[in-house]
Write a structure and sequence with these properties.
This protein has 184 residues and is mainly alpha-helical. 80% of the residues lie in helices and 0% in strands. The chain is built from six helices and no strands.
């Protein structure tokens, strides 16, 4: 066996080991992104389960406020039926805005604010919102790491060869930063 053949074999073997190592790292990071999204999905579903109960209680006090109640249910249904992370992000931005309007509506009814069922559901919803925010931070952290990995040399070459695509961040909607308008 010649020295040249040995050198070529070592180079090919080294390149193969490098490709396998990078592929496995990218795959693990993609799985962490999927795990992060799964956690968000769990809490989004919990929120979707609580909302109809809140709406039913509010209907008893403010049944004539149909537009706000209808908007909340419509946004909740869009959130529940979203299939992709991108669709879910948009649907949940709409739901967050509808919930802000809903909260403003409930402020107009002192008897409602004293109702124990309403208070329990509102507290549960608040806890779920906190969990969603924590999950979103975890998810966005894994997305950041994954997107950085597939973008920098030499992993960008391996990611292009094997079709790794950037993940979408779960970003806050610009509209959620503005307070809803309250009309009396």
């Amino acid at each position: 066996m010649s020295i040249e053949l040995i050198v070529i074999s070592v180079i090919v073997l080294g390149l193969g080991v490098f490709l396998i190592k990078v592929f496995n790292e990218l795959t693990k990071e993609r799985i962490l992104v999927q795990e992060g999204w799964s956690g968000i999905g769990t809490f989004l579903q919990q929120r979707n389960d609580v909302i109809p109960n809140l709406v039913e209680i509010v209907k008893g006090y403010a049944g004539h406020e149909n537009k706000t109640l209808t908007d909340v249910i419509r946004a909740r249904n869009e959130s529940a039926s979203a299939k992709t992370p991108e669709d879910s992000i948009q649907a949940n931005a709409n739901l967050s805005q509808a919930l802000l309007n809903f909260k403003s509506l409930t402020e107009q009814y002192p008897d409602l604010k004293a109702n124990q069922n309403f208070l329990d559901l509102q507290n549960k919803l608040s806890e779920i919102e906190d969990k969603i925010n924590k999950s979103r931070r975890y998810y966005n952290g894994t997305v950041r790491e994954y997107n950085q990995s597939i973008s920098v040399f030499p992993k960008n070459i391996v990611s292009a060869i094997f079709g790794f695509k950037p993940a979408t961040f779960f970003a806050e909607d610009d509209e959620s930063r503005t307070a809803p308008k309250i009309k009396f």
